[in-house]
């Protein structure tokens, strides 16, 4: 097709001869097949995702010693228990394993400082170092503690071996900032127990 005349002629005479007449019931059958395939695919995806997803947990805060207990109000208005940890001070928790604990921390930032502030948490189990974690604290926009900026929450999973153990967390901050720390234990939700 080189010219507009050829295109016009092809549209009127050639293409209608090539096209086959459509049956009236073909389109509804195609739509029905597409809907069945889509719903079947969605149902199989939901089945697989509901049976292979990791169990959901509620996290319970474990009582600790060594720091001052305080409360932090989240952006949703929920009160959360935290422990104020000063530099070189340690927080201790007695735990029974085997268990997985989640250590959460928020550094209290100096006023007017918007740069990343490094801090280090040493984690000991029965007096032996199990892990140390270095974080860079950046300010949270939604949470403040007693009018001061705090960092976004940092999380660390800690595996506790079988038996009774003492978990100890020690803070090392570069500029002497205190830190809010809490230890949480996973509890299965009612949905996962059935």
Structural notes for this entry:
By secondary structure, the protein is of the alpha+beta class. The chain contains three helices and ten strands, in the order H-H-E-E-E-E-E-E-E-E-E-E-H. Strands 1, 2, 3, 4, 5, 6, 9 and 10 form an eight-stranded antiparallel β-sheet that branches. The chain has a two-stranded antiparallel ribbon with strand order 7-8. The longest helix is centred in the N-terminal third of the chain and has 27 residues, at 26-52. The radius of gyration is 30 Å and the shape is elongated. The relative contact order is 0.21. The model has no long low-confidence stretch (mean pLDDT 81).
Short description:
With 194 residues, the protein is α+β, with helices and mostly antiparallel strands. Helices cover 24% and strands 50% of the residues.
Number of strands: 10
Q: How far apart lie the N and C ends?
A: 69 Å
Structural class: alpha+beta
What's the alpha carbon Rg, rounded to whole Å? Answer: 30 Å
Bin the helical content.
10-25%
Percent in strands: over 45%
How would you classify the quaternary structure?
Answer: single chain
Q: Encode the helix/strand succession as letters.
A: HHEEEEEEEEEEH
Number of continuous helical runs: 3
**Spatial shape:** elongated
Instruction: Give the averaged pLDDT, no decimals.
Output: 81
Q: Which parts are unreliable, with pLDDT below 50 for 5 consecutive residues or more?
A: none
Biggest β-sheet description: 8 strands, antiparallel
